[in-house]
Each structure stands twice: as C-alpha cells, then as structure tokens.
Amino acid sequence: MMRDCQMLLNQMKEITEIQDSALLLAALKAANGDLMEAVTFLTEEHAQEPAQDVAAAEPSAWEGSAVGKQLPQDGSAAPAPLNQDNLHTANTIRPLESPKAPTAERDAAERPQDTHSAENKNRSKRKRCEVWGENSKQNDWRRAGDWPVGMKNIGNTCWFSAVIQSLFQLPEFRRLVLGYSLSQKVLESCRSHTGKRNIAFMQELQSLFALMLGTRRKFVDPSAALELLRDVFRSAEEPQQDVSEFTHKLLDWLEDAFQLTVNVTSPGDKSKNPMVQLFYGTFLTEGVHEGNTFSKIETFGQYPLQVNGYRNLSECLEGAMVEGEMDEATASQSVKYGQERWFTKLPPVLTFELSRFEFNQSLGQPEKIHTKLEFPQTIYMDRYLYCNKELIQMKREEMKRLKEKMVILQQKLERYMEYGSGPARFPLPDMLQYMLEFITTKPAVAVPSAQGSQTTLLHSQAEPRVLDVLSQPNGILERTDTSTEDGAFFLANSSPQQNSNMELQPSVPPAELSEHPAPHVVSEEELNLVRTCLQRWRNEIKQDVQDLKESIARTNLSIEQMYLDPLLRQVPYRLHAVLVHEGQANAGHYWAFIYNQPRKKWLKYNDISVTESSWEELERESFGGLRNTSAYCLMYISDQVSCVGADEDEGPEAVQIQKEVEALTPELRQYIQKDNWRLEQEAEEWEEEQSCKIPQMEPSPASESQDLSSESRPDQLSVCEQSVHSLSSEHARIAQEQTAKAIANTADAYEKNGVEAALCEAFHEEYSRLYLLSKETPTPQNDARLQHVLIYFLQNNAPQQVVERTLLEQFADKNLSYDERSISIMKVARAKLREIGPDDVDMEEYKRWHEDYSLFRKVSIYLLTGLELYQNRKYQESLTYLVHAYQSNEKLLLKGTNRGVNESLIALYRRKCLLKLNEVAASLFVSSEEARVSEGVSILNEQIIPCMHLMNNFDISREDLDAIEVMRNHWCSYLGREDMDAKLQLKLGELLPRLLDGSTEVIVLKEPPKIWPNSPYDLCSRFAAVMESIHGASTVRVK
After folding, report:
1. pLDDT tens digits, 348-394
2. What are phi and psi of 919, to 5 degrees?
3. Within this chain, do residues 379 and 392 fall inside the same structural domain, yes or no?
4. Is 387 a catalytic residue?
5. What is the pTM of this model?
6. Annotated catalytic residue 589
C-alpha cells in the first residue's frame, strides 16, 4: 500500500512539478486516491491562493467611470463594498469554497501570498491540457519557424526525452538514423526475436527523428518508440527509468541494428559498425598485482566517473585513471602506481556517466550525492592518452612532490597560526604582541581618569581576554553594544552589584580597580631587555609566516599550471549536452541542456518545452551543491564532430533543415506530410469543440457573431487598434496567473449571484490588491512595478479610464479559458469592452501608456541581464545590454522620474563595464598576436568607441568624464613605445583619432540578443537576487 502511494506521489511530482510531498498527499486524499482528479485539483482553480486579507480603499467615483457604468450596481448582483466586516465574512467563507480541501491545505492557502509565490508558479506552469499534450491554445501546438521541437511526456518518460534530444542534436548521429535501411534479403534472414525488436525500434526511432526534423508541431509524441521499450524498461516497481541504464541499452540496440548493415565476413567484427565508431573507444589498463605486472585493453561506451570526494571533472578523471599506489619495491620501473588506465582511442562522442547515487547500508536504500562538481565547456584529453604516458607520469610525480610539499608548508604555517599546547590556541605573532603590551602596561594605583583610552586598548588589542570575560556565566552580554566606556566598566567587574555600587565606594583597593593585568614591579632594565627580545622575535616570526605564505602561493600556482602545457592541449573536446536530474535516488525529473551550434547558444530541453538558456543557468542547475538538482551525464564531442556540424550549419538553420528533409526517403517525407495534415485537422476540430463550449447566455448571438467575424479579419482594424490590442494582450498574458487567481476566488459569488457579480467581485478585489501594492514603499531589492502593469500605471498617476480598461482587458483574455466560470467571465468582460466607446477612453493615450510599460520591462530585463553578465565577467555582452538599457531608459525618464529605472545604477555599471572591457581590449592589442590584436581592435571599434561617444554629451557626469579620460590616456600611453611593433604603432595611429574625437561619426550600436520575456514572478525574483548580490557585495553606491 505504501509503495503504491509513493508511486502516485512520484507521478504527481512529475506531472505538476510540485515537490511538496505534504501538499501532494493532501490533494490525493481530497481526491479519494484518484490521480487525475488530484492533478486537476492542483493545476486548476483549487491550486489558486485566496486573495490577501487586506483590501485597498476603492476609488471614490466608480459609478461615474467608463468601466464602472458597465459593471452591475444593484445590490442583488454586485458584491457589497469592501469594508472590514465584509472582509471578515469573506475570509470565513473562502475555506468553504472547496469542500474537498483538507485542513492542511486550507492552512497552507491562508499563508501570505509571497511565501508560496515560487510554488504557485510551479503549480500553474503545466496546466491540465499540457499534461496530455493538448494545449489550451492551438497556436501553442505549432512550431515557431525552425525552432527545435520538444517531446511529449507520456508518464515518467522525461528520461527518454533527455537522451533522445541529446542524440538527435548530433548531426552525424541524426544522419545515420535517418539514412538507416536494410535490404530485403537481410530482413528475411533476421529471425531472432531480439533482431526483429531492434529493427522495429530502429524504424520507429527513424520516424521520430523525421518528425523532429520536419514537423509543424511544437512537440512530438514518442509513444510508438516507447511502446517497444515498455516491457524492457518499465515495471511497477521502477516508475522512473534510470538515464544511464537506458542509454546503455539504447546504444546496445543501435549497435546490433547497425551491425546488420555492415557487410563483414566475421559477425563478431564490429570495427566497421558506425555506432561503435561514433560512441565507443578503448583504454589500456596497466598495473602491478602482488608483484606481477598485467595489462589489458578494454572497450568503453559511457565512461563511469565517481563524484564523491572530487571538486571538478579533471579530478574525477584523474581518480578514475589512477587507482591505488603500490610499494616502490614491488612496482616496476615503468608503472609507479598500483593501476593506471590510459585511453588508446577516444570516440568522436565522449560520454561521461557521473555516479551520483550510492547505497546507504544503514538505511538499506540508495541515496543521491548532492555535492558540487564543476565541469568545463572544453576539456583537453591529452593528459589521459597513452601516447603521452611518459610525460604525464613525470608530471604526476612532480604533482605528487608538490602536494607533499604543500602539506608540509601548511603544517608549518599552522604551527605558527595555532600556537599553544592547550585547547585554546592563538597566532604566535599576536601572542608576542600581547606580551609586549603586557610588559609595557603600568599598574593602576587609583581610579584612572583616562578610562576611555584604556578601554580602547582593551577592545582593540586585548580581544582574547574580552572573549574570555564574555564567555563567563556572569558576563554582561547585553551591554556589548553600549559605549566603549560602559563596556570597559562592566568587563572590569565580576557582577552587576559591584558595578552599581562602584561610585559609592571610592575606597575599593586599587587591585580591584585595575582595568587589565599589568606587572606589579618591573625595572627599566628588565623592560628594555624583554621589549627588545619580544620585538625582534615578533619581527622574525612575521617574516617566517610571510615566507611560508609566499611559498604556499607559489606551490599552489605550480599545481594549477601543471597541465597547461601547450603540448597537452592538442585534443580538445567541446561540451555538447548535459543531462540533469532533479530529485532523490528513487524519484525525480530529467531534462537536458544542449549546445545549438547554428545559434551558438545553449538550449534547455524540458519535455515539450524548448527554451533559450545560458551557461550561467546551466551552471546553477548542473553543478550541484545548492539544491537537489545536478548533472547526471556529460556528452562531449571532438573537434572533428563539431567542425562537421559547423560546416553543415553555414547559412540559416531553416535552410539546413529543409535540405535534410529533402534528403529523406519518400516514405519518411510522406510520413511528415501526413502528420502535418493531421495537425491541421486537429486544429479545426479543436476550434469547433471550443466554439461549442462557450456559453451563449451573454452577449447575444448577434453581437457574438459580429465579434468573431471582426477577430477573423484583423486587417479591418486600424493600425493603432492593432498595436494597442497587441500590447495590451501581451500585458494581459503576463498577468494571466494573477488574473486567474482573482477569478478563482469568486466561486461563491458566481454560484449565488451569477457571472456579472463574479466579474464585479474579481474586478474590485484585483484592483484593491494592486492599489495596495502600488502604495508600498520600494526597497533596493523590490520593484513592485515589475509585478503588474497596473502598479506601474497607478504609481505614475495614469488616467482612471486607462487603468480600468486595462484591468477589464485582463479579464477578457482568451487564455483564461480554463473552465465554464472562466469562460463566462471572459465573455462578459469582452462584451463590456465593446460597449466602451471612443468618448470614454482615448485610445491613442491608452496605447502610449502600454508602450511605456513595455519599454520599462525591456529596460529592466536589459539591466538585469547586463548586471548578471557583468558579475560573470562577460563584459562584452554586458556592455551591450547596459548601453541599450540606459538609452531606452532616458526616453522614459523624460516623462517622469518614476517612469523608468534608477539611472545612476545603469550609469555606474555601464562605466565599470566599459573600463573593464577597455582593459581587455588593450591587453589583446599589446599581445602582438595577429588574431588577438584584431579582436582587441574589433572590441574598440564596435563597442568601446560608440559607447564613449554616446556618453560624451552635454550633460555628462563627472564620473563618466573621468572614466573616458582614463581610457583615452591608457591608449595614448602606447604611443612611441620602443617595445611595440611598427605595425601596431601604425594601427594605433589609425585608432586614436576615432577614440579622441568622434563627433563627425554616425554612432551605430549593435542590438543585444533577444531575450524571452519573463513571467512577473521570474522577473521579480531575478531583480531581488541581482540587487541583493550587488548591494551585499558592497560594490554599488547609488546616490
């Protein structure tokens, strides 16, 4: 019973992406064990949070407004005004809206909204229709141009999607699969069950690849190929298939299937097998066992690597290649270690399997290893090749010697820095300093008048004694924040009673009044002798410590640069794909990051979703150490494979895809055409089904048909109306999740008073919530304007008609068609929008406000992206975003200080980034290497000079002017340098006029890469993280 329950919970985690087991269990209980009802409960209206308890004061003139006159005003339909009594009543009713909701879920729903904002995002990320691949909008079914397609998850099959997508994006592998064919003679001769199964799977994989290449769908269905795997890979006890196990089996099947295409005399000869040539390599194992040497050659496909105990991929490989250490007397001269492995042949596609699971003997179950493991985008395999054996063995011996030396140096330093024989140890230089202070301190004979100066000495130089006093039970801990005099006064005494009576008892003996220890009697001769010795010893010790630290730094640098020899950087492998696992050993979710060669970008493949990503996101989700998400498998490709892909991908990607489709067999092309035709049929059937679902109660059939006809002919709308509709629809889509929550809270009004009352209640509550948010005091880590377009409007005093129409449009958004209530509210809102005439709302003004908010979001996204890139030292990319953010922000600030973002923040980081990039360009220029010089000149011409000229206008700040002078002086300092080549001096002469005076030039700025828009939750969390990072690091001082 418990196992079945765990299986259901794992499936719900996979479908809903909610990791809170208590919440999932509560939903499962509420649904009486029905999985689909529980999923529906979590992903639709029951998953929505109730509105917060506090409502804003409503505007005073609702009845007279353009929107207010369209909403019901009679008491029977409209909700009562939002006073405190009604709020209390509403809060007592809301928990009863969902009779199935258990107590645990009601408690969770009553928490503040921001506590679960991240989880709310996860709940609504995958709605019911997406679980089975039936999207709520038919446009979301369709592929966007040549964008890669996703893969449908048909129940715990994300592992299949991650592996297949990684293989499909290998051009060589894709060509092999799509070109697979067997003669009739071979087909007839294959009679074994395994052989027939492999051929059938190969044919299904071929069809799947053809669809992934030429389909018009946003994602494909792998059910046919998975059906063949079901008996082998799926069982009731293993709901989630292990990626490495599946990949091993997949390669075995493919190897056997392709072996049928190879005409060899010996069936066991697989040297001509294309799968073996692409994915398999060999390594030699040499070692000494009980005095006997041995060696053997083995074949590998996925090379396993242990993660535990290692910090990065190089350490993992070193640990895998060298095992144990034999005694020097028994080891041979050629083999210094117990066992060594050397790669004798590397495959074009090199796959590392990271062992992130281990069996816990005490618990009797597997556990996932969450430790951090870094890996590079390019790894050089020279140090693991047999051909470099002698050089590497020498370097390993040198590395061993350096590490032993490092241990000795660290131990020596530790003896200095943790001196003493008891449990409490201190740095020896400090102890000598304390003794010097002690010997020079004069004993107190009366209440000292200069108490403040002694207190300073106590706090600054006698810190260990202060800590000792504070650690005592009667220490006055609460007074540590008071003034220094009070602090010294309390620390000098043992109890509060003594402190309170001190001023009344001037006759206390001098010993009790002494603020800190001092010698009772010391002669001048003794003092001079001890002081001289202590000072000399302290200087000697400080010099010893400094020498040790420098030796450690030099040794560490030698270790880091040990394998940076140019001779060991001849065999590069580029990272192609990273397979990621989120969860624990017994359950979780898989996705893949794959480098797209034509786009030169990382893409994230997560079931049906394929989105643009970045190396920074890949690091966060793949290295591990922070959350239960980490890389599980790394796929590297040689230069040979990546160069083939680059040659193939010259020109637009769509052209290359079309060429590959045209190269398919007629049967596969026909298969693609039939599937695309079925897509059109499904779209038509869906439209008919949706039209039947929309209630015909309101508005009237005549007005409905008129509205549908107008929507079907957008060319009849004016350009202004089309533009306004596009922007306002975009902002409605951004706020879709928040609007859906407002609708979800109107269940009671909808049941009792009808759809118009529900709309009115949702409208008023959402307006009140946003009005409150707009009045909150902003903080450096929080900008409420990013949460909703109306907060931006309210903070900038937008006309009431613009605010009201914007909110009404959000309830009229077609994307809210979740259920009958949402559809009904959407229809009524659309009808009311049609009743608002041009006299009620100035559409030109309405358009301008939405254009401003769209530009504000763009500026914010550019700023955040620029700051993130700057923190990751990607100054070229960062500067492009920051410059465009500043230029666009200027337009907004002309209309009001609250229309844009903080100008000084953008200016500060634009300046810092420009200075950093100038240093990079200058170092490239003076390197004298032709390629690096060209790169430096390119950076100067395309980014630095245009940015400098944009900054150098009539209202330039003093800081920007100083920065420009620093950069110009840097380049001018190269003039006449004797160590600079004559050609470089000539190039410098060509650059300086543009650098010093570009007033006659046309400034052309490179447009930054497009960024997919973030949801409000994502954007706000990014904003908070970036701002907290830059302020926390004390690198920003914004006036």
Report:
1. 999 999 988 777 777 677 778 888 999 999 999 999 999 998 998 89
2. -65, -40
3. no
4. no
5. 0.49
6. yes
